[in-house]
Design goal:
This protein is about 40% helix and about 15% strand. It has about 220 residues and is α/β, with parallel strands linked by helices.
Length: about 220
């Protein structure tokens, strides 16, 4: 059995994405619908570009209910899985995990698509530090969400994303007595959900597709 430099026989990464036109609704006080779509695409571009630069993964899979995402995935050498209609995040992830396992995956890393500060070094560090653990969790900056989840094997835990997902993932690993670790970093922690996140992001000036969007967009002041 060949062991790659990741420490896993085969490690795949899954990036879930909402339908673009429905993404980031909480930013509506600041951004118009078309601008929210542009921001969603810019952050996806950054995450996929970052994962490609890492070069540790056998396959990158983008799962979404938005068929237009297929072309973006293809541009970065990623596979696309259409989740169907109204499947929901966790069911969509189970679908993508099943396809990954069916092709021989021994571990999967789930990474959210709205991480504009994520760096290749942070991804490599998380993968390397995950060796020997069944589950690795990267929490969101507020400590309640989960922005990345590595599972080895992929079926060791049912994904439990959504409200308070960090606590729910911890509860699952403790209940199953799994060996796990928590890894925090700025890139994995900083997601963009609400207006305050967006305002903070404007001060970072990331040198990527998201940064270019931030320079071009005209932010409205909420009334």
């Amino acid at each position: 059995m060949r062991i790659t430099k990741t420490g896993f026989r085969r490690l795949d990464v899954i990036v879930p994405l909402n339908v673009i036109s429905r993404s980031k609704a909480r930013l509506s006080p600041l951004l118009r619908p078309a601008e929210r779509s542009e921001l969603t695409i810019a952050m996806l571009w950054h995450v996929l570009s970052t994962l490609r630069k890492v070069g540790l993964f056998h396959t990158v899979i983008v799962v979404s209910g938005d068929r237009s995402v297929r072309a973006i995935a293809k541009k970065f050498g990623a596979n696309f899985v259409w989740e169907g209609k109204r499947r929901g995040l966790n069911r969509a992830l189970r679908l993508a995990i099943g396809k990954s396992v069916g092709k021989g995956s021994s571990a999967v890393l789930i990474v959210h698509a709205d991480l504009p500060l994520l760096t290749p070094a942070e991804v490599v560090s998380l993968v390397v530090k995950s060796r020997g653990y069944s589950v690795t969790i990267a929490p969101a900056k507020d400590g309640s969400g989960t922005n990345a989840l590595l599972m080895a094997p992929p079926s060791v835990l049912p994904p439990a994303f959504g409200k308070d997902s960090f606590r729910r993932h911890l509860s699952l690993v403790n209940r199953r007595k799994l060996r796990y670790r928590v890894i925090s970093s700025r890139g994995f922690g900083f997601d963009v959900d609400g207006p305050e996140d967006f305002r903070r992001l404007m001060h970072y000036h990331p040198p990527n597709a998201t940064g270019r969007f931030m320079r071009d967009v005209s932010v409205r002041t909420p009334s």
